[in-house]
Amino acid sequence: MKKLYDETHPYSDTDRRRTLWYLLEPADGIGFLFGRMEDFGVSFLVPGDYEPLAQSILSAMLASRLDAAAQGVSETHFIFYTDRRDGDAMGDQVRFTIMTRLKSNEVSCELMYSDFLFASAHDELVKVNSTILDVLEAGMF
After folding, report:
1. How far apart are the first and last CA of the chain?
2. Is 8 part of a structural domain of the chain?
3. In a domain, 61, yes or no
4. Domain count, the chain
5. 41 found inside a domain
């Protein structure tokens, strides 16, 4: 996993928000996101790989707490880019991205994906999101 950016911005005297951007890479052991693109089907979603993905995200989030930049931050946003892009109905390419937020003792997770993945693999995407949330909630607090 490669850290791309790390920025903290004050929104008020008591509201400092930090955002970290990462690029997930094949060497991270989550190769299912880097499989061959398919015209039909989404076999890249392999349930046994959801936990390693979630653990990679948890590791990055835990490590970020050790940075000096984490002091006095009211919330932290994490953006995990992948190189995976899928086409949508308009002909655009949508990057598969995982976004998490840590605020107080609460984590949230959002996935960005194409309309193709929404239509063909929504149930699996819900499982990916749930696995990430379960791992983060168990590991962060």
Report:
1. 23
2. no
3. no
4. 1
5. no
